[in-house]
Amino acid sequence: MISISTWLGFAAVALAMVVTPGPNMAYLMSRSISQGRQAGMISLAGVASGFAVYVMLTSFGITALFIAVPFAYDTLRLTGAAYLAWLAWNALRPGGVSLLQPRSLAIDAPRRLFGMGLFTSLLNPKIAMLYLSLFPQFIDPARGSVLAQSLQLGLTQIVVSVAVNSAIVFTAGGLAVFLASRPLWARLQRWFMGTILGVLAVRMALDTRR
Asked: What does the mean pLDDT of the chain come to?
């Protein structure tokens, strides 16, 4: 199983990732502001279901790759490093616009809210790539089942994401006002997250332990 230090490190990275603006966060904020907290939580249930789908696909996929291809880790590591570097550039480039700016949405029924949350998660390429980028960095085949470690990491990521996004749903209105009145904060937030992503990209590219 994963060591405590590795697990805590992954939890910290998962926290940093979930507070990075993206389609899921933007949708949940917009839905909560447009239709209320209950609608936001139903949408979040759909988003979390999408996470679960990616966890299963990624976990079993990583297991099969490690078994079939000896250098699969290096392939995923370098691909992930390139993707994280791309995210860092998009966060740091001049003229970036915060994805946290809410949109006006029509009123939807609970089933549609769940479905839209699910599809927003499944159709977000950031989610799939982040799983492929982060999981190999924290999995050590020498510590036992790769599948078990992958599922442990996936559950950790889902719990962290649901906790943070739940807070966003319940504070969406106040957060929107805060962002609208403090453009400097939005710029600082992009620089902060861009720096974190850049550090992760460099760390992943140089990690040759496996």
From this structure: 77
Contact 59, 151 (CB under 8 A): yes
What are the tens digits of pLDDT across the range 144-200?
Answer: 888 888 888 889 989 999 999 999 888 876 766 666 666 677 677 667 767 776 776
CA 140, 146, 152, 157 torsion-angle sign: positive
